[in-house]
Amino acid sequence: MAGSGAPIIQLRGIGKSYANISALRGVDLSVRQGEVTCILGDNGAGKSTLISIIAGLHPHDSGDYLVDGQPRKFSSPREALNLGIAAVYQTLALVPLLPVWRNFFLGSEIELGRGPLRRLDRAKMQDVTRNELHRMGIDLANLEQPVGTLSGGQRQVVAIARAVHFGARVLILDEPTAALGVAQSGLVLRYISQAARSQGIGVIFITHNPHHAFLVGDHFIVLARGEVGLDMPRADLTLDNLMFHMAGGKGLSALEHEIQGERTASAQAAPKAVGPT
Amino acid sequence: MMTVTTEKTDVEVPRHVPQVAALWRRIATRPEAGALGGAILVYVFFFVTAPPFRHFAAFTTVLYQAATIGIPAVAVALLMIGGEFDLSAGVAVTMSSLASSIFATKLGVGLVGGAILSLLLSLAIGALNGWLLIRTKLHSFLVTLATFLMLQGLNIAITKLVTGNVATSDISAMPGFNQLQTIFASNIVIGGAQISIAIVYWLVFMALATWVLLRTKVGNWIFAVGGQGDSARAVGVPVVQVKIGLFMLVGFSCWFLGQHLLYAYNTVQSGAGIGNELLYIAASVVGGCLLTGGYGSAVGSALGAFIFGMTTEGVIYADWDPDWFQFFVGAMLLLATVVNTWIRLRATKGK
Amino acid sequence: MNVTKFSKIAIACASASVGAILAMSGHAVAASKPLTFAMITHAQPGDTFWDIIRKGANAAAAKDNVKLIYLADPTADKEAQLIDNVVQQHVDGIALTLAFPQAMEKNVKEAEAAGIPIVGFNAGGDDWKKAGLLMYVGQDETIAGKAVGDKLNAEGAKSVLCVDQQQGAVQLEERCNGIKATFKGKYQILYTTGYDMPTVKSRVQAKLQQDPSIDYVVTLGAPFAPSVLGAISAAGGKAKLGTFDLTPEAVNLIKAGKLQWAIDQQPYVEGYEAVDLLWLNKTNGDVVGGGGPLLTGPAFVTKANVAEVAKFAKAGTR
């Protein structure tokens, strides 16, 4: 179940600065086949910088980025994609008015015939879409329905299924559950887990929800102010521990004390404070 | 491992058998469904109220008026699905007639040479519209408004500069005129009614555009580029090429109609064409294109043009007071559009 | 002999002195500052008819050594606005088409208050005096319309269709009303929208199909005549065609016998005289016409006299 073999992606001491402001310093990270690596952190902790380096949007300034042991420096997302590293962004994934199957194959359409008679192989594309979605637990009666009519969770799953189908070995998921309700988040999380375990894909799951992370993660990295604050496998960690680190370590216990103090002062029964959601 | 709570507890979800929806259902959910309803309504209305409208000859007259709007409207519909406008299309039609005539008479390249050079010019103007759009990142409404005004001025200024008049000279005596007239502007007589070849071209263009939109990769890209350009770019769709290509397609359609007008009427007034760009856009929108892009159909634009043709001619067949002409046309279009929207709403609600 | 000699000398002296005076005055005008006139019309851009008017105006301007500003807009409020525009430029005279008398009334009064002489031409034959214009040169559209009505009666027409390309333009309405006044048969009007030829063709075609009894069509502008001929043949009708105004194509159609006649108002003369009358008024205080309009038409161009007109039409001045 856990990650096996050599890492697909390995980052060693990666750093990045924008005009003298250092956004990321000395980040180490490995992604193995079938393993979900969760990257957590507050806003501004460096999560987006890290994923844009991995996905090839921006090159790194220092350190090494190895893919299958080879050092790389990407200048476009296309290069990363060619090595099987695909990013699924929350908003940029799909075209809402376009039918599900057309979205699924957008940019990689299957065609029939030749010359001026070259046309879409609709039957095949619809079949593949239906099968891929069904494998992930989504069964649509009508693949012609616009993606915009699907639920938020279903949309994320379609986007993820598409990346997997087109050969992603490493999937970077940017806050896929951020805008979703409980049930919809569940659908997406189940799919993340399934993509990793049964299809052997390395997943980088970016979130600021430690509950979601702990449900599916094998390895956890908490970023704080551009540096790695915590780097631990699941076996060595509890949810409370993760939340503690997530909220900035000692900062949280200080805050908890303070809030508890106020509440007892106002003589009210206080439920236990919970980390950010 | 599956400790995640989900809305479905079992991975083995029951599988829908993919089934072909009922025909009416499929028609009702198409973008042009509303326009079809509107067209039928207007047709029945005039069929009942205007006896001369019932004749086949009247039908072909209506089709001819519709074709001269519909030919550019097919391309404009594709452009609108791709998320852009072209306000220069109306005067671009006139420009292509003028260019063809002026090249033929003044450059000595003959009528065929004139038509070919005019085609190249029309495509170049389309490409220029697209290129300006990409380079300036302005809305196509502004870019093509500018080219519309510039073309309007150029049409008159250059015609006057070259010919000394504001209309082109009659080209009907030049060699090759008859052959080109056969291609662009001949009439077929069926059952005593003249059917302009423009109608045939219009229907062929509409069929081709529909095929491209629904059955080819490029069609998929057009929808995606208009629906959400950034998403399309992210999955490798060549957004810039698609947009420039669409503007050039509009250029082609304007050229084609321009040649028809030149060979049907022998001479062209350089001030013609102004205002027609709005008819092309209106036909597309009545036919189901969204002003925001990403949705619409080529068949719809044809139905929109047909509704417009029926309305303008129908008012004449019904012999209503000519002073009220524009009012009646506007009222009928409003009626058709309301029915159109009503049908579309019902179709999308009842899914 | 002596007397004749004397008188010859006297005439020579007189003409010489008049010539000298005229030359001096002409010289004085030229030396001080060339006059600036404005010409304001309701022309649609790119219209052959208006281009001929403009050519006439330019010819007069060149001869009189005046600077001519040409402005045009086919809509009522915009044409009225153009008057304000040139008043602010302090032009020395305005030649305008009084196409929308009501809309333009206020602006015309303001120009007159600013002491700018105004000559009307082409449109507004019924209203120019009321509006206070100095002179009017053009065809009296009602008279022209009546002449057409008489012509139609003479040719034995029973039912006429009048094709109006600009609904609401007063001079076109006057033409129609003129026809209606004298024509004895059935009269109908059909509106089209400017130069969109397919629209002209299909609307006329529809009208002829709707009412097969129509045996004569009159277009109010010559550029529309060829399109209407197409409509007549497509409708399978035998209706005859006549038109107001003249274009080179119309001349050819008359020669070929497809167009029965064109009623010519000599637009070149209208443009030319409008500018020249302003110049005469400005430099010599002349007012021409004796309180009436200076008529440039109507004159029928038919197969009988078309050859003479044709050579000028080719040059774009008829």
Comma- or semicolon-separated keywords:
heterotrimer; A: 277 residues; alpha/beta; Rossmann fold; 2 domains; six-stranded mixed β-sheet; four-stranded antiparallel β-sheet; 12 strands; disordered C terminus; C: 318 residues; 11 helices; 17% strand
How does this structure look, described?
- The complex is a heterotrimer of chains A (277), B (351) and C (318).
- Chain A has helices at 47-55, 77-82, 100-104, 122-135, 152-165, 182-199, 210-216, 239-246, 250-265; strands spanning 4-18, 21-33, 36-41, 62-67, 70-71, 85-88, 111-112, 119-120, 170-174, 202-206, 219-224, 227-233.
- By secondary structure, chain A is of the alpha/beta class.
- Chain A has 2 domains: 4-246, P-loop containing nucleotide triphosphate hydrolases (Rossmann fold); 247-277.
- The two termini of chain A are 28 Å apart.
- Chain B has a single domain (35-342), classed as Orthogonal Bundle (ABC transporter involved in vitamin B12 uptake, BtuC).
- Chain B has helices spanning 23-28, 33-49, 56-81, 89-106, 110-136, 140-163, 177-185, 197-215, 217-227, 229-234, 239-265, 276-286, 298-317, 325-349, and strands spanning 187-190, 193-196.
- Mean pLDDT of chain B is 87; it is low at 1-12.
- With 318 residues, chain C is of the alpha/beta class.
- Chain C folds into 2 domains: 33-139 and 267-287, Response regulator (Rossmann fold); 141-264 and 302-314, Rossmann fold.
- Chain C is built from 11 helices and 12 strands.
- In chain C, the strands form 2 sheets. Chain C has a 6-stranded parallel β-sheet, sandwiched between helices. In chain C, strands 7-6-8-9-10-12 form a 6-stranded mixed β-sheet, sandwiched between helices.
- In chain C, helix 2 runs parallel beside helix 10 (267-284).
- Chain C starts with a helix and ends with a helix.
- Chain B binds chain C through residues 50, 52, 55, 57-58, 61-62, 64-65, 68, 152, 155-156, 159-160, 164-167, 169-170, 187, 192, 194, 261, 264-267, 269-276, 309, 312-313, 316-317, 319, 322-323, 325-326, and chain C through 44-48, 50-51, 167, 188-191, 193-199, 201-203, 205-207, 209-211, 223, 226-227, 230, 233-236, 247-249, 252, 316.
